[in-house]
Amino acid sequence: MTDVTFAALGVAEPILRALAAENYTHPTPIQTRAIPALMGGRDLLGIAQTGTGKTAAFGLPLLQKLSIGHVPPQPRQTKALILAPTRELAVQIEQSLRTYGRFLNLKLAVILGGVSQNSQVNATKHGVDILVATPGRLLDLVQQKHIRLDGVNTLIVDEADRMLDMGFIRDVRKIVAHLPRERQSMLFSATMPDDIVKLVGDLLKNPERIEVTPQSRTADRIEQKLYYVPAQQKRQLLSSLLQDLALNRVIVFTRTKHGANKVAEHLSRTGVTSDAIHGNKSQNARQRALEAFRSGKVRVLVATDIAARGIDIDDISHVVNFELPNEPESYVHRIGRTARAGGAGIALSFCDPSERGYLRDIERITRNKIEAVAHDLPPLPEGQQQPEEPRRHFHNKGRKPGNHKPGGHKPGGHSPADAGAPGKKRNGSRPHWHRGRDNKKRDAA
Ligand code: AMP
Fold first, then answer.
1. For ligand 1, is residue 51 a contact (CB within 6 Å)?
2. Is the pTM of the predicted complex or chain greater than 0.70?
3. Ligand 1 centroid – CA 51 distance (Å)
4. Which residue among 70, 120, 179, 294 is least crowded, i.e. fewest CB within 10 A of its CB?
């Protein structure tokens, strides 16, 4: 938080009232810098993770811009377009904007894959002021002429690096081709891989650049601990840690959907309230699980990386990496689920012998050696011990450690496909065995 006030940044009264009701007393650093720049009409590049307050950073100036001299939108048009990589993030952005704009008279709609398009077509038929969308479904509706993008005066691309990871960048570019050239544009990304730098060059004009956390640095407020534990003993370790009631609102991360289900089942069997969210669950089931977690009915939420993207729940006491992520950036995103909005948090990571390579990659990009702590599980008998790093052979053939890309070389073997982003490559292109299948899977993560 900073010493400046929202009023001093030029935020208008009806929005100030909504912020006061949310107990937002002071703007966060990204808000302090972004709000005046955006109100001055600048384009913006925000290098920031969720948890920094970036939604209000772009949302408040947007709401204000659209409410000044408001004219009703034209049928099937939208004035502002916000693109988000996942359904959860899109829903959350829309909810936040509704909250901040509750005393304004603006029309918002959200467009997502994985649910019937009829209600979305109806919601946008008479035009909206702000449309929040995942790229695949939006492109479908534009191509079917249910939605027109020629009235867009503001474009926001959120979590651009995740768009790239999920193979959506081509869709983003296709969508942008439908927009008027004269517009205000913003792009947010936690990291800046080359493809995003290129996208920024193509989308933004002389942007204000705001970087709030150094690239790939883990939030300093999060206490990080590491347990070296064989894969066979991870559940036992999780159960034993959960005996400590300080772990009162916990997200457990697994790499695969199957793994998430198994951990949630194990917890339920042992009397810990839990639920799993991942890409195989319907949108409704995911929202229900999130609500149960948010309200405290469920103590542990087990999630895959993609499904957890954009989860915005305050007071998460602990993040447990039951399995380390194969993309080191995901570690940063995962542990960022705790210590939100200025609070503190604890991240506990389990590392089995096959995950040592992932651990090295994480420690390299976060420039932090995670403190290892002992557990008191009995040692495994001779013969049951896990060999070190067998998985690296699939992932890292002939490459230096640290340069491995998600997706692997083969559809078989240990593939992260089950993690919700089937066989994607980091550069946004698709491996050959997935080509031609993309459209159906898009939005399914
Ligand atoms: P975001 O990075 O947009 O996902 O926001 C992270 C969290 O911070 C959300 O729970 C917001 O409700 C909260 N938040 C955003 N801005 C402020 C603020 N100025 N004061 C307090 N909480 C905030």
1. yes
2. no
3. 6
4. 70
